[in-house]
Every structure is written in structure tokens, then in C-alpha cells.
Write a structure and sequence with these properties.
The structure holds 2 protein chains of 2 kinds. Chain A is an alpha/beta fold. Chain A contains 12 helices and 14 strands. The chains are: A alpha/beta, B alpha/beta.
């Protein structure tokens, strides 16, 4: 099977999706410039300005336009280059996209996808945030955050095929991550987690970029005789906790790793479900690894104290085993 | 600094001082891009090409009196308002002594309470509403002779917050001068793909305020238009939308490659109209300044930036123990329970 990057996997999926005349892409700098992270490079030349739409800096306008087009049967893929600026479109996403199907009594769907990125690297307070929890909190929105090239391609296809609005979360530090991806079209179903590493001492529940860091921490611990099992949630809503709970029942130790602030964050929901459904199997308090609760600092030394490292994950797993 | 409504007859001293700041700003900009290529400043953003607009604006602003709500492009403006190359290098290198934020904010997010420069976020156009709020408070507080200046690129005029700011300022006739530094590109997107009309200034009509197009590469033209707008604001004549047509001579930031969206010939044509060279010629021709004096100013600027770089390089990074500083304020007498910091 060919080994390609996350960027290439997304490009493959988008090329396949563009074969459907209902699909179009709209966002800032996505046409002539080929997008900030190079995902749509060459698309304008291949598919034309009608279907590859450069948009002005108007996030609410981009998302609102996608909603309107989706209502009449198009399959818009809107891009907001950084999730930080999706805040300007939150009314469109939460008061509109998430609720139209319900408010219309099921008469009209909003089959749109919003592609956006989490990520950081000395981009400071308003360029380095994660709002996964804010999207996933809202009934009516589906939230997908894959970790591998294979899942990126398969889940993007499933997201566009889905009748509901899907927030598709990429990561600026993952575009060059490589993995096996079949050439042919395929879908990975939304709402299914995956077991990415087997082990017997502790269960790590995570998603997106933290899957890769957790795998690295697992390798470190393996040399100490500790074998951890890792579950990649892949989708936050609908949230599939079945594999995580099954694993937790075997290990009795849980560690949740999410790249966001701890208070009221995704790790709180995940840990709550482990407690709720695995209470009788609990051998130790569940530990969590998250960002420090400060606006992301620019200064490199402070930033490295704020973000999650392999060491911090390994230490949290050791704590869970005490 | 001169009369508010008279012609922009800059004195020789004013003209030389304005030129010095323009040259200094370019020297800082050159250095920032070097540092970025060397990996010593992670993120930099340019003001090159905007110097006449920004220093011209400053000629109508009373630093520390009028409020300024700038955007990320305004390095020459904050220099003209009294920040130093050293301040800017500390900011770009994220040092503890960075006067904007102690190393918290990325470069281009300027602030100084003493100079009444108000910090903004990275969301384009969202700071204009704060300028409106400042003006609102000044009016309530009876500070009649204080005006508020806010600036942005033409790309920002597509944002909802831009429209809301001008709407409120127009209805309430607030003392705000909105300055569009219209440089023809919003990252990769040319003016016609961002703005449905040829001039941003035309939009002013929809908000009940005058709009004016100015040659943003002509320092004196900008100063004249700004003084008129500021005089109107201070005289309770309401807001103004000023569009300074200019061109940025470098990519938007060190994260984009402008060769992918504009022709080298176009950039070269604008380099030939560089506002600094242009004003230098005015100094020689109309003010009788010797070319050797201009060369001396350039040499001094480079030396000052060299020293500022050494200072910033040697300055300590923020101490890890300060990581949670300034997240929440403290209330005198109250003893809140501390946040859980297990993973500190």
C-alpha cells in the first residue's frame, strides 16, 4: 500500500470528492494561493473558479454561504485556515448549521463540512487554541478529528457524504505525518473509535495528534515493562466509547490525553464516561494530560511548559499505575 | 505638532524627524526578516512600504493623549509614537522585558498603556469595535479633545466587526478616525477579490461619515488628511474613513511566499516608488537637506538596530515561574482558592 502524508491523503480525498458536481470548496487563500497548508494547491487550475472559491476575510459569510448552498442540495466544503477564527462564525455554526434540520422539522438538511485546523508553534494566544469541546458540546454538529493519513482520507469522504454538518479538525503539526493509504476511494465511518495499540497495564484514550505522542510514550514505557493500550476516538460526536470502556475494564487504569485546557474540556467528558461505565473496574483515579491553563505564550520556553510532551504523557501513565 | 487645520507645512525639524522614524522602521523590518531566517524570531510581519502612511498618521496624533488601536502591520506607527527599536526586538524575540506582553504575544501585537496604544487579537478587523468603545467612553467622560485612531488593511473591511464598528461610530458620531492601510493584498487575495468597489473610502457613505482616498506613499498628503480628520473628531464632527493607498513590499508575514500570488515586476515597480526614497527626495529638494545627512540618518538607524538586537539577544526569556501571571486579576482582600495545577 502506498505510504503518503496527511496532506496528500486529504488532497486525494478532495480530488475524489470533486468528481461529484455538488461539491465545491470555499475559503480564504484556497484558490490562487493553494491554501495556507498547501492542501488545495492546483485545485483552482483543475476545477475552475466556480467550484474553488477564494473568499474574502469573512468567516461568518463563508460558513453562512455554505449553509445556504447545502440547504438546496450542494455539498460545500468550507475551510477556515485556523480554528481560532472559526469563533467569528460561531453563530452560523451553532445557531444555524447545528439546528436547521431540527428547526425545519426534518424538512431540510445541512450537509456541509467545515475543514479547519488546531495547532500551535509560537503563534501565541489567539492562534494556538482548540475548541473541539465547544463544537462537540452542541447537538446537531458532528465533530471528526482523525490522526492518520488513512483516517483523514476515509473520514473526509464520510463527512462530505454525511447528511449533517461536520466539523473536520486537522492539525497544523500533522500535515507531514505519513501512513499507508490505498489509492482507491473508501470511507471510514463517522462515530467509530479504533484500537491503535494493545497492552494490559493501562488504557490511554486520546485522538488527533495526541495519538502519535501517546504511541511514543508507550514505546518509552514498554522499555520499563509497562504495556499500555491506546484508543483513538477519531470522532468526538457521535462519541464511541465502546473500545475505551472495554479496554478500561481489562486494565482498570485510565489516562486521557487531549490537547486543550483541562477545565470543562474534552478530557472531562471522556473521563466522566470512563467513571460512569467502568466504575466497578476502577483501580486508580483516572489521570489527564492537557495544556496548562494559560493563554498560549509566544516565548518558546513558556510555550514548551504549556503544551503536552511525550514525557508528560509517560509520567501521567506512571501516576495512573501507582 | 503643528496646527490641526492648517496646511501640512512640516517644519524642517518635523520633516527630518519623520524621515528618521521611517528609516528606523525599515531598518527594524530588515532586521526582523534576517532574524526570522536565522530562526531567532519565530514570527515576523512586515511594515515595509507602509512607512509614509503610518508616520504620516502619527503626525496628527498626540502620543499618550489620543488613543491608538493599531493592527499587526503598524510597526512604523508605534515607533513614531515613541516605542523604540529595542522595544520591538524584545517583542519579536519574546523576551521577559517585551513591553507589549512580557513575551506572551506574537510579534505585531503592539501595546503600551503609557502611549495609549491598545493591544489587539489576531482576528482581523475585530479591534475596530474597541476603538469605538474607547471613543464612547471618552465622550461620556468629557474628554472632548481626545480622538481615537484605528487602522486595518482593506481585507478587514469584509469582516462583520468592521461593519458593526463603523455603523455604531456613524450613528453616534463618535470621535474615531478609521484608517485603511490599503495595500492591495490580503495575504494572497488581491483588492478586487476582497472589496467589491475600487475604493474602500466609498464605503463611508453607508455609515454617514466622510471617506477620503489619500496617496499612502506621500507622507505629507497623509499628514494633511489625518489632521483634518482628527480636527473633525475633536470638534465633535464625527468619524472619518481614510483610505491610504499603498503597497507592502514584503510578504504578509514570514509564513507566506508572495511569489505565489504577485508578479516580481509589480513588486519592483512599487519598490521604485518606495515612500522613504520619495520623502528623502523631498527633503533634499524642498528642505535643502544634504544627501550626506540622509546617509548619516540611515547609518544611525542601522547602528541603533544593531545595538537593540544585541540587547534583546542578551535579555532573558520569561521565567517559567511567571507562566500563570496575568491570566486573572486579583481583588484586594479576596483570597480565591487556587486553580488545580497538578500538571504544572
Amino acid at each position: 500500500m502506498p505510504v503518503i502524508t496527511v496532506r496528500e491523503a486529504l488532497r486525494q480525498a478532495l480530488h475524489e470528492l470533486m468528481q461529484d458536481e455538488r461539491v465545491f470548496i470555499i475559503g480564504e487563500d484556497i484558490g490562487h494561493y493553494g491554501s495556507t497548508y498547501g492542501v488545495t494547491a492546483g485545485f483552482l487550475e483543475q476545477y475552475g473558479a466556480e467550484r474553488i472559491r477564494d473568499a474574502p476575510i469573512a468567516e461568518a459569510g463563508i460558513v453562512g454561504l455554505a449553509i445556504g448552498a447545502a440547504l438546496v442540495g450542494m455539498r460545500p466544503i468550507a475551510e477556515i485556515m485556523s480554528v481560532n477564527f472559526s469563533l467569528l462564525a460561531f453563530d452560523q455554526l451553532i445557531n444555524h448549521a447545528a439546528k436547521i434540520y431540527s428547526m425545519f422539522g426534518g424538512q431540510m438538511h445541512v450537509p456541509m463540512v467545515l475543514r479547519t485546523t488546531n495547532g500551535w508553534t509560537q503563534l501565541s494566544a489567539t492562534h494556538s487554541q482548540s475548541f473541539d469541546v465547544m463544537f462537540a458540546h452542541v447537538p446537531g454538529l458532528k465533530v471528526v478529528a482523525p490522526a492518520t493519513p488513512y483516517d483523514m482520507k476515509g473520514l473526509l469522504r464520510a463527512s462530505v457524504a454525511d447528511p449533517d454538518p461536520v466539523i473536520f479538525i486537522e492539525h497544523t503539526l500533522m500535515y507531514t505525518v505519513k501512513g499507508e493509504v490505498p489509492d482507491e476511494p473508501y470511507e471510514v465511518p463517522i462515530g467509530r473509535s479504533a484500537l491503535v495499540r494493545e497492552g494490559r497495564h493501562a488504557t490511554v484514550v486520546t485522538y488527533s495528534r495526541m495519538v502519535h505522542l501517546s504511541l511514543q510514550a508507550a514505546e518509552v514505557l514498554s522499555r520499563e515493562g509497562i504495556e499500555v493500550e491506546i484508543v483513538d476516538l477519531r470522532t468526538l460526536r457521535p462519541l464511541d466509547m465502546s473500545l475505551a470502556i472495554e479496554s478500561f475494564k481489562r486494565t482498570g487504569r485510565g489516562v486521557v490525553v487531549t490537547e486543550d485546557w483541562q477545565s470543562f474540556g474534552t478530557s472531562a467528558e471522556i473521563a466522566a464516561r470512563l467513571y460512569e461505565y467502568g466504575f466497578d473496574y476502577l483501580d486508580a483515579p483516572i489521570t489527564r494530560v492537557n495544556f496548562r491553563e494559560v493563554p498560549m505564550p509566544y516565548s518558546k520556553n513558556l510555550e514548551l511548559k504549556t503544551v503536552i510532551t511525550v514525557d508528560r504523557i509517560a509520567n501521567a501513565i506512571r501516576d495512573a499505575l501507582k | 505638532m503643528g496646527s490641526d487645520d492648517g496646511p501640512p507645512a512640516l517644519s524642517a525639524a518635523e520633516a527630518l524627524s519623520a524621515y528618521t522614524v521611517m528609516v528606523q522602521a525599515r531598518a527594524v523590518d530588515d532586521r526582523l526578516w534576517q532574524l526570522s531566517r536565522q530562526g531567532r524570531a519565530h514570527f515576523v510581519i512586515t511594515s515595509a512600504g507602509h512607512e509614509a502612511t503610518q508616520v504620516g498618521m502619527a503626525l496628527a496624533i498626540r502620543a499618550g493623549h489620543d488613543y491608538v488601536v493599531p493592527y499587526y502591520r503598524d510597526m512604523a506607527l508605534v515607533l513614531a509614537l515613541g516605542q523604540t527599536p529595542r522595544d520591538l526586538l524584545l517583542h519579536a524575540m519574546g523576551r521577559a522585558a517585551d513591553p507589549a506582553s512580557g513575551g506572551r504575544q506574537m510579534y505585531g501585537h503592539f501595546s503600551s498603556r503609557a502611549r495609549r496604544i491598545v493591544s489587539g487579537s489576531s482576528s482581523v478587523g475585530s479591534h475596530l469595535v474597541h476603538a469605538v468603545g474607547l471613543a464612547f467612553a471618552l465622550r461620556i467622560g468629557g474628554e472632548r479633545d481626545t480622538a481615537v485612531v484605528t487602522s486595518f488593511g482593506e481585507g478587514a473591511t469584509a469582516e462583520g466587526a468592521w461593519h458593526e464598528a463603523l455603523t455604531i461610530a456613524g450613528i453616534q458620531r463618535l470621535p474615531v478616525v478609521f484608517v485603511c492601510e490599503s495595500n492591495q493584498y490580503a495575504i494572497s487575495m488581491p483588492h478586487h477579490a476582497e472589496v467589491p468597489v475600487a475604493d474602500v473610502a466609498l464605503k463611508a457613505a453607508g455609515y454617514g461619515m466622510p471617506g477620503e482616498v489619500v496617496d499612502g506613499n506621500d507622507l505629507r498628503a497623509v499628514a494633511l488628511a489625518m489632521r483634518r480628520a482628527m480636527a473633525r473628531a475633536r470638534a465633535d464632527g464625527g468619524p472619518t474613513l481614510l483610505e491610504c493607498k499603498t503597497y507592502r513590499l514584503r510578504p504578509h508575514s514570514n509564513a507566506d511566499d508572495d511569489r505565489r500570488y504577485r508578479a516580481a515586476a509589480e513588486v519592483d515597480a512599487w519598490r521604485a516608488r518606495d515612500p522613504i526614497g520619495r520623502f528623502g527626495e523631498v527633503l533634499v529638494r524642498e528642505y535643502g537637506v544634504a544627501p550626506a545627512v540622509l546617509a548619516q540618518i540611515a547609518g544611525q538607524a542601522r547602528a541603533e538596530v544593531d545595538q537593540a538586537t544585541l540587547d534583546a539577544d542578551a535579555a532573558p526569556a520569561p521565567h517559567p515561574a511567571t507562566i500563570a501571571d496575568h491570566v486573572f486579576g486579583t481583588v484586594a482582600g479576596a483570597a480565591p482558592r487556587s486553580e488545580d495545577q497538578r500538571h504544572a
